[in-house]
Batch of 3 targets.
Target 1
Amino acid sequence: MSILSGISNFFGLDIGTTAIRLVELQGNYPKTLVKYAYVPIDPKLALSDAKGDQIKLAQIVLDLCNQAKMTTKNVVVGLPTRRLFTTVVDLDKVSPRELEKTIMFQADSLIPTPISESTIDWAILGDSPKDSSKIEVLLSSVSNKYVEDKLDALESVGLNVIAFEPENLAILRSLISPGLKSTVLVLDVGSLGTDLIISVNDVPKLTRSIAIGTQAIIKAAAQNLNIENDQAQQFVFKFGLDPTKLDGQLDRAIHGTLESLITEIEKSISFFETRFQGSKVSKIIVTGGASLIPNFPNTIANSFGVDVEVGNAWHNVSFPESRQNELLAVANQFSVAVGLAGRNE
Ligand SMILES: Nc1ncnc2c1ncn2[C@@H]1O[C@H](COP(=O)(O)OP(=O)(O)OP(=O)(O)O)[C@@H](O)[C@H]1O
Ligand SMILES: [Mg+2]
């Protein structure tokens, strides 16, 4: 064990709806890649809260960890945004200890679930943009039961959970350069939903989840073209949003779902730009499964007239040149696991 940092090595664990992903890094910024691994899983298993299923899932994590020869059983686990309640509140400027009291005292009115059943965490973002006598605090809460069940399952197979971290914070750590001075919107468009984060100078100022992901897009294609889901998925990832392909039929079939997603993103952008007068989103970074749908990132960016980029999970990681191609092939699905692995414990 290291004396200076407590726990010297650990890996990041992303239990996604469609896959489990592990990443281990070492050293200081930019951390070096040690190992990474992933295995597809049955979404039913991933989404189940049943104890037996959670243990099965933990066993898959352990098997993958052994197979990949991870150097440690210490793990930092991602908390899915849809399981978290997150809000930004303005509170009186007080000492950190007083702040804790203030938050606990007001928690009932700040979070939707009973305090006795929730774990609350917070980070000071800076002065409130509305009232300079106040500070702005990012507040997250999660149900104790959700965290305890995950912890019990993972520890029951011999893994050692050293921390949980919201996935949206992990994503920022992997995709954004530390110290970046600009306002960026990050979209992780996964299987069931989209996580949205607006970050100013690498600090998250707004985060939410939207219940539209690749499954909704595939379902729209299947229904409107009257084809099976599997074929719809192939079409979506082969042709994407291109009106010149398939006589524009696929493009039209998924247009409505895309519009709904864009409307939700738009609401978040206007909420943000109203609160932070003068701030403008200058770039959109897209990650997750949907970033591979042809023309998807562009379509989103064109709706808002800003630059778009497909996020590279390995952006802040150093690795041998010879592994470049292999790593870039999975760069859109590792942002959560890499971010968790990039924590400084
Ligand atoms: N090349 C591809 N061909 C077909 N489908 C793909 C391709 N790449 C990704 N997908 C689809 O994208 C989805 C997975 O996206 P992603 O990996 O972001 O989800 P996840 O992290 O497992 O889920 P979540 O983050 O929502 O819990 C799946 O529905 C998968 O089938
Ligand atoms: Mg995901």
Note: The chain has a mean pLDDT of 94.
Target 2
Amino acid sequence: MNLTPHSSLYSSDPVSAYNRLKEAFPRLIETQVSLAEHSSFGVGGPADLFVRVRTTGQLCELIKAANELGVPFEVIGAGTNLLVADRGCRGLVICNCIMGLEVSGRRITIAAGEDYMALVNAASVVGLTGMEFAAGIWGTVGGAVVGNAGAYGSEICDVMVEAEIVDRKGDIRTEKTPYFEFDYRSSKLKKTREIVVSATVELKPGEKEQISSRVQEILTIRGEKHPRIPNSAGSFFKNIVDPTQPYGKLPAGKLLDEVGAKELSHGGARVYEKHANILINSGTATAQDIRELADILRERTLEKHGIRLEEEVVSIGEFD
Ligand SMILES: Cc1cc2nc3c(=O)[nH]c(=O)nc-3n(C[C@H](O)[C@H](O)[C@H](O)COP(=O)(O)OP(=O)(O)OC[C@H]3O[C@@H](n4cnc5c(N)ncnc54)[C@H](O)[C@@H]3O)c2cc1C
């Protein structure tokens, strides 16, 4: 691809930068795509430009071209941990749809666009144990690495050995687990904003029957505790790290319950009546309703408990 550098073009004339990017990838880039369709909350405005990437080569080329033209970009997976602003996102939104999975001995390498659950299933089918904890967690492998997704005391950082990432310049490399500086629902990638294209986990041999019955057991527990509520993004706030608590965390839901969260609603947004840390779009919510409800909850918790809740859900786009 031969793009003339136009780094100043975007700031003075975003439309021509958009057009040039579209011309460079004519069949790939769509315009004004509703991001509500790409977020489990079901709210949010459009992406000026939107693309589903299916190969790492495509991803690198797109990033390089967007940089040359000065077009900002965001990467999303399945949108199950996202709050998209009502005004949407300027620039390019890249939806990671890179697929593929390979088993080699005790290791499974899986592309970032695959469901996290596909990794759980693959491990179970080949008789490898260690992924059961992730049964029923929504989203893609890419989202799971960035947010160190986990449950029941385990997280992806416990099993991941390395991942392939693409930096903001569009160059690919492989990094071992320590690079990611994993923490509770966090990794270094939240700061560097590098993009995950695949992850490799190393598991232990196990009994297939035992693995799949543990997976089923977890799915049943999740189904009872967190039924598949439409229009939510799971837990809105992070739990509070506290070694004296089970799994080392004081549930944010407990603190929220104590400030009467379950009775609260704001515009079309409300708190799920069975779980004080889950915010729901009851059908008519705007992203702003959800944002303001979250702000009310944080204020009340700070006032009553002296604890400032941190958001697990990632907000993107232009908020008021
Ligand atoms: C009902 C429900 C229950 C849930 N339960 C749990 C749970 O038990 N445990 C848990 O940890 N989470 C849970 N979640 C949250 C969510 O499933 C996870 O955070 C998931 O890993 C998000 O993946 P995603 O592909 O949807 O990411 P998205 O929501 O699309 O994106 C989230 C963030 O990751 C970034 N991102 C996504 N893909 C990439 C990539 N390839 N490279 C770089 N950055 C990327 C985005 O830029 C964004 O910042 C739940 C969500 C729901 C709706």
Note: Residues 101-211 form a domain with the Uridine Diphospho-n-acetylenolpyruvylglucosamine Reductase; domain 3 fold (CATH 3.30.465.10).
Target 3
Amino acid sequence: MSRFTILMYHIVDAPQSKAEAKYACPPALFEQHLEYLSSSIHTVVSLSDIEEHLLTGKALPRDAVAITIDDGFEDNYNQAFPLLRKYNMPATIFLASGVIGGTNDWMKGRGFPERKMLNWNQIREMNEHQISFGAHTVTHPKLSVLNNTLAEQEIIQSKMSIEEHLRQPCKHFAYPYGLFNNTTPEIVQQCGFTLACSTRSGFNNHERDPYILHRIEVYGTDSSWKLKQKMTFGMNDASPLFPFKYYSKQLLNKIGL
Ligand SMILES: [Zn+2]
């Protein structure tokens, strides 16, 4: 059965603070990643292709990979979008609907600079060129600690806002901070989403819970080589020694040690 990978980005711009370094991928590096993907064994697919695969069993290309970008920063339009168009690749951006046209309020006071978020005109334009939009709540709360009523409001209202503005179904969700509790995935399902992305690392296949899909987090410091390592081993943290450790562990398992 097909194995597929989902990549997760956030900011596509030069980092403006130390805290941002992990989350901000400079555009030149982002382009190197796309260049690597276009020349590798991987085929970039949309989350809708993955949804169809999970719901109907329709085959995905071998080594399929989907690109997702969380939060909806304005640089996604200014920097990422022209590059995604250049390489003719689809991607999904998960929007926190309450800050569209505003700034990254939820990140204030943690060493993160203020950044502008996408506005609806930019979102509508991208939506006509292979960029789809998923929901990421209204205010970017920790869903794991909200009661069910509040969690449901955050989840359903972001969906409705996106559907109202784009006049099409919004079927994909991503948990802010990757956080959810025992009931959150069920609420997401009841709200009408067909799949949800977590921040758990690893590959996916048809046996994976569609409401807890795993992703590989691409850091703003990852070279194309590092990205390749991460995609080979399905790990966020693939250090230069990792292949050695991985294969020696496999060998030890094989010989029963
Ligand atoms: Zn987020």
Note: The helical segments are 27-39, 47-56, 75-86, 120-127, 148-166, 184-190, 224-233, 242-254.
